[in-house]
Specification:
- By secondary structure, the chain is of the alpha/beta class.
- It has 17 helices and 19 strands.
- The strands form 4 sheets. Strands 1-7-6-8-9-10-17-16 form an 8-stranded mixed β-sheet, sandwiched between helices. It has a 7-stranded mixed β-sheet with strand order 12-11-13-14-15-18-19, sandwiched between helices.
- Helix 7 packs across helix 17 and helix 10 packs parallel to helix 11.
């Protein structure tokens, strides 16, 4: 790996860089609703992060079927270590769950299936199953579900008279193998020596990136790095961009200041990708297909959280209690999330109720549904709301009727405060909180402890107490983009890579046909009253 740091980089960064470089610088269901009359029963031990939605897809049965065989789920949420009974079709063994090619039908149907090069519409007949339809048309159940996204929704059932899409069965011409880059050229443009918050965060981010590059070098990746000091907000980026283009680059990380984004896009080469690491308000994402945002905009965050909640809690057993401010109230910074969840609750048939944000304890108590999982949702993330909600839920949980659960939905900034406030941290556990987070760094994993030890060894500092953590974000960025460019070359965009990230699940989706890409990283972090933490990912 070749690294060059320009004179404008900080002295600390140059020393750290030299030291670092000296070292070596729906899994889709197999058989859904298939042949119920020939079922085989298996047991499944629930793992951390698994949801009813995921299990229904993995085993090819409906969520309702799982709950019917395991009545405890009607009154209590799914728990790690729990043993479930799951009924499978006779033809599915407990070791064959996954995508399997189905045998093509015989006779005339085989010829038709083999020659079908375009999707067709099909009206479902009485008692037909996904398995049977897939077999008749010579496709996999996975292919059928991919062509009909509504089948991935919780509680979906195939019904007589429904029109579905049968995907093409004729193989498409093989795409040319992706040609990765033998050497990945990175240019970092950040304010590293100006002082202030931006410089501190940028420096830590850069250090994390360097530690990832050390690891990537050990894995055989060849990287050329150039580091440029970003001019002040009122100054032009033209001079920096001239040097960037003269050196040549495949990827620009930065700039940080909003007034420099337009210049970076306009003056960079047409095949150079640009990563904006911190901001969630980059208007250029709508028109520049080379742009990647690590921090999702508010509307994307709301959609991701809504999907997470909907895929994690079964509608027949979940009751939402929304505590809402009046429309336009400045304190309600998460109003878009609460509104999106409300609309989803209505559309999907969840039981729900809306109360004023300052509702008294007794009012909330009266709203709790007995025998159900009740989730309290606020539309504000400020410190006062966090403390009030945690105290309220903790108090209410002391007097819940048997078989009734009350939990709290919180936000990422709550974790930031809890990292320095033990009372708020304990409150996350005692109020049975699910925190919706686009990034989550847990310092007690072996990977995180090794990373922090390495960070302290080379830079003599602790990580900043901010969310997301800057050094892990830099580390994850380097892993995602260096490996992506080295594997896929210039065609790298939203490919999913099996990488061991520290904090962010860096996979991307395109915002529009002509626009760029936004990170889809999102989890529910469950702080349980027994002082355990589960990280729940959306079923993909």
């Amino acid at each position: 790996m070749t690294t060059k740091t320009h004179s404008s980089s900080t002295a600390t960064l140059r020393r750290a860089s030299r030291r670092v470089l000296a070292l070596a610088l729906l899994c889709a269901s197999l058989f859904a609703n298939a042949w119920a009359q020939t079922q085989k029963v298996v047991t499944h031990e629930v793992k951390k992060g698994e949801t009813l939605y995921k299990l229904s897809h993995d085993y090819g049965v409906s969520i309702d079927d799982i709950i019917e065989r395991n009545p405890i789920l009607k009154s209590a949420p799914l728990k790690a270590g729990q043993t479930l009974s799951i009924a499978l079709p006779l033809s599915v063994s407990s070791t064959s769950v996954g995508e399997t090619a189905l045998p093509a039908p015989s006779g005339a149907a085989t010829t038709a299936a083999q020659q079908r090069s375009l999707p067709i519409s099909y009206k479902v007949k009485k008692d037909e199953t996904l398995w049977g339809i897939s077999r008749n048309f010579g496709i996999t159940v996975d292919a059928l579900i991919a062509a009909n996204p509504e089948m991935q929704e919780p509680g979906y059932k195939l019904k007589k008279g429904r029109t579905i899409t049968i995907p093409a069965n004729k193989p498409a011409p093989a795409a040319p193998a992706a040609k990765g880059l033998a050497s990945v050229r990175l240019s970092v443009i950040m304010p590293l020596q100006t002082g202030g918050v931006e410089a501190k965060r940028s420096t830590e981010y850069m250090r994390g990136l360097l530690l990832a590059m050390k690891q990537l070098k050990q894995q055989g990746r060849n990287i050329v790095l150039h580091v440029y000091e970003e001019p002040a907000q009122g100054e032009s980026l033209r001079g920096v961009m001239q040097r960037v283009n003269a050196q040549g680059t495949d990827l620009i990380i930065g700039p940080v200041y909003p007034n420099h984004w337009t210049e970076a896009i306009a003056l960079s080469q047409s095949d150079t990708k640009i990563v904006i690491p911190f901001s969630s308000k980059v208007q250029q994402i709508a028109t520049c297909p080379r742009l990647f945002m690590l921090n999702a905009p508010q509307q994307n965050e709301a959609a991701m959280i809504t999907d997470l909640v909907a895929s994690s809690f079964h509608k027949d057993n979940t009751h939402f209690i929304f505590l809402k401010h009046s429309v336009g109230d400045a304190a309600a910074d998460k109003q878009s999330v609460a509104s999106a969840l409300t609309w989803r609750a209505v559309a999907d048939g969840y039981k729900h109720i809306a109360l004023p944000s300052q509702a008294e304890l007794q009012v909330v108590k009266n709203a709790i549904k007995k025998g159900m999982f009740n989730l309290l949702v606020t539309d504000a993330s400020d410190a006062e709301t966090q403390q009030r909600m945690q105290s309220m839920v903790t108090a209410l949980r002391q007097t819940l009727p048997s078989g009734t659960t009350l939990a709290l939905l919180g936000y990422e900034t709550w974790l930031d405060r809890a990292s320095t406030d033990s009372a708020l941290r304990n409150g996350l556990y005692s109020s049975d909180t699910y925190v919706a987070a686009t990034a989550f760094y847990y310092p007690y994993t072996s990977a995180a402890m090794a990373f922090e030890a390495d960070y302290k060894k080379w830079f003599g500092a602790n990580l900043l107490a901010v969310t997301p953590r800057m050094a892990p974000l830099g580390y994850d960025t380097a892993l995602a983009f260096v490996n992506g460019l080295a594997t896929y070359g210039k065609s790298y965009a939203a490919q999913r890579q099996p990488l061991s990230f520290l904090q962010s699940d860096l996979r991307f989706s395109k915002v529009s046909e002509q626009g760029g890409y936004v990170s889809q990283s999102a989890w529910l972090i469950h702080y349980k009253p027994n002082m355990q933490i589960d990280k729940i990912a959306k079923t993909r």
